[in-house]
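Weekly sync notes, structure subgroup
Attendees: PM, AL, DS (notes)

Item 1: joint prediction request from the bench team. They want all two components modeled as one assembly rather than separately. Inputs as received:
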Amino acid sequence: MSDCAVRMDQVYKKFRKGEVYNSLRDLIPALTGRMFRQQELSASDKREFWALRDISFEVKRGQAFGIIGPNGAGKSTMLKLLSRIMKPTRGTFNLEGRCSALIELGAGFHPDLTGRENIFLYGAILGMTKREIAARFDDMVDFSGLAEFIDTPVKRYSSGMYTRLGFAVASHVNPDVLLVDEVLSVGDQAFQNQCVARMKEVIRNGATVLFVSHNLKTISEFCTRCLMLERGRAVMTGPANEVISTYLKGPSTAHLLEAGSKPVAISKVRVRNQRGECARFESGETAWIDIELTARERSPKLSVTVYLVDNEGQFIFHSSTQRLGLGTFTLEPGDRFECTFELKLNLVSGLYGVAVTVYRYDIQTAYDRWDPATTIHVSWDEDVRGFANCFPKVIRQEIHKASEAASVAGEGAPPVPQDVERTG
Amino acid sequence: MRKSLNELYKYRELLYTLAQRDIKVRYKQSVMGFLWAILMPVLIVMAGMLVRYAYAIASSKPLDRADIVGVAVKSVPWAFLVSSVRFGCNSLVGNSNLVTKIYFPKEIFPMAAVLASLFDFVVASAALLILLVALRTSWSIYLFWVPALLLNIVFLAAGIGMVVSAASLFFRDVKYIVEVVLTFGIFFTPVFYDVGMLGNKGKWLLLNPVAPILEGLSACIAHQRPPQLAWIAYSLGFATVVFLGGYFFFKHLEPAFAESI
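Output from the run, pasted for the record:
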């Protein structure tokens, strides 16, 4: 008995692209045609590609493991292999225990059946027995918050209700291995938070969880280890934040390659704390961002802007040398320019991209833009949400019982809170 | 083989739940409710009686009660076979979101289609029983053959269902072929007529594996005669081959389902 819950060993997956005959009407003429033209056969055999090549990794029991990569890297194929819908072309794949997938919520729902009937149907599809479903039925309904609509056909549900019911069922399967795709980014904020809390509970209960997603926030929040895919190959496996940083730096090499053609190019961006180069910060810690520019042409009226970008690509902070009172500067060909920004990272936990632009004011043109130049991870232990960390503390909490207020009111004096000032 | 059967057993509740879903949905959608299960058999029985009536006039032989019972007894299982093959054929393609997203033994789909049709069959059989009682059909020891014959047709239906569901996943026009075969199959199967009516050449029709079952049912129930054992054995053998062959065929293709759908 190993402590490995999931193990892939040199897994390859091949797909055939090009013509696929999906009706006899097309297939029969094609087959007879092929008998006469032999050479076509060899041509069609070449139209195949490897969606995954030589993938090996292990996930320990109870671990949360992330799989990231850009579109077309093979994430979906990986998900299908993991959920055993497809078989690898080559290589071995082992998964111990009961596996369940938190993907495509409500895929098994039938619109004409009621919420109650659908819970039993979807539960059975996910591999639960009737007794197990009945035992967890109340939890599922509670979680979904749909108790009063549970006997309504789901075709009358809104899409949000649909998703909530789906997540409620799927997250109560209690499998040994759970696969999760982008489902955590559906629904409104309140429901997302509920989902995240539920996932943490599942992980705490000892399930092995595999996240296949390009939502890096989810991955960084849950996963300890991570695998990065690129064009079907495993590029990197390691601690989640290192892999994520590498993934986010991915386009940066491309940036440097094309830098040579720009009048002024950003040649270096480095983030450090007091001790040196660093990507992980405590909330409230100070970060120094070193920026270096190289000029190829004479360029006046320049300014450097630094941005912090959140997971959804929103600029949550930006400022520039010009705006901070330093004015603009001029560079001659061959000049090197260096500056350092000092930022106090009053941010809630999460991943933030650091982006830099060089702007020329007189012709109103951005000469260079490096987005994201690097990524930092900010963490803080308390549960604060939003963007800014205001370092909250609760210093007073009281409950004024309605019964006491009534007894005071009975004595003729209306209760006026002392600490509220009334203005006319 | 053993592994996949174990797995199928593990997912047996899903089989019942899916069959239950199909039944519920079918009965919820129609205002007629349970009459839905009887509609097709009733139509077939009526068509059969019309044919029999015409035959009686043409051959100037009186239409006797056993003939009517015989047609009714053969129509209901035929309706079951048609509906399970028809629903089975669409069972994979119609559930493509489940086929491509969630893992479980996929033969559950055609099997659930058979199970749901079996439910309709039971409802229709209850109605048939009332008809048999009303026509004062007499009993015989040969009624013990009936469960075996029914089991035979269920296996046949499940086997055909697995083959056509998998085939129609890969080739979308299989569905049309199946539809045509089901529509005209009734003329090549002794539902409206008896094999005996065709004289010696009628034997050839018994090569159709459904024919001996229907003839056997008619013999046991309507005519209080034993079925023709040799032909029953042939049909049973045929059904076993179709069922096992269908199962292996299905299991062999199953890994490719998600990629091809």
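Discussion: The domain at 4-242 of chain A is CATH 3.40.50.300 (Rossmann fold).
Action: AL to compare against the crosslinking data before next sync.
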